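Input record (one chain):
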Amino acid sequence: MSGLRAQRLAARRAARRGRARRAAMVAVASAVVAVATVTGAISALDGRHDADAAKSVATGSPHLDRQTAAPSPSATVTKSPSPKPASPSPSPSTSLSRSGAAVEREPRPSTVSALLYRHPDSHVLDWVRAHPSDPRTPLIASRIADRPAAVWLTDPSPSAVASQVRAVTSGAAAQRRVPVLVAYAIPDRDCGGASEGGAPDLDAYDRWIDAFASGLGSGEVVVVLEPDSVAQAGCLSAGRRAERFASLARAGRVLKAADPRARVYYDAGHSGWHPAGEQAALLRQAGAASAASSDGIFSNVSNFRTTSDEITYDRRVLDALGGPAGLGAVIDTSRNGNGAPAGGA
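The corresponding structure, as predicted from the sequence alone:
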């Protein structure tokens, strides 16, 4: 064999080995992403959904009274709260324990995203169906529309939210998947900002939570309880803040009593907002450190902080929070690929 031919064969073998290594790295990277993040578009239920399609029998929610906590010092908001989308937007998440390991209550398959429920109705799915010839459709369909989706529940009507929750949980149960629900109807929501609204008062909110809980059924479900409700509570007086926190603590107890397999997570803001110790003190007043009401915290909802910053921040919050060792964190990674804007958010 000539020297030139031998060199060519060696070059081809090296190229094949390089392609194989790159393919292996891509496969490994994909597996890590599947385990570490749960991507999905947020969808909002509205009057178009047929609540009668739900098949599961809902578990009734026991009546629990709020237990008002002592007022805390006024929290100063140093950063703008997480902006809520006027329409659904992607909301992937990462689940961590206090040590950084995945939160586990029972053996599960390694691919977390395979367990989560993708609701059949969302704005992104509507867009994909309406634009089959758009050159962007394949990418949007595969990277966003095909991912599991959290569902935001915002209608302040108790009867409406009961049927909406039941429709989602029964649909998930039929597919043996885990739904992710965002409860978003706290009074004075968003402190009168772009996402203002919610129940008219805390008594009405308690009834709304009771109705929400009645639709959970008995399957596993993740509840993201009221984004910004704790981190943004500085807009309230000390007395009203204590009442809100008591209502949030009650909400967690009601949800977990109605469905013992429900996981309830509380608002930790994000890494660019309150210091971890300050946020933990607020969360403790809202019931986030109690196993009867909480499975941990969530952060970065509709915000742009990097996942690494959020992991570090959430670990610090959980360390400062105390509570059961099994408390974990859910991180929204839907829009943080480029990090926070230069001006902050």
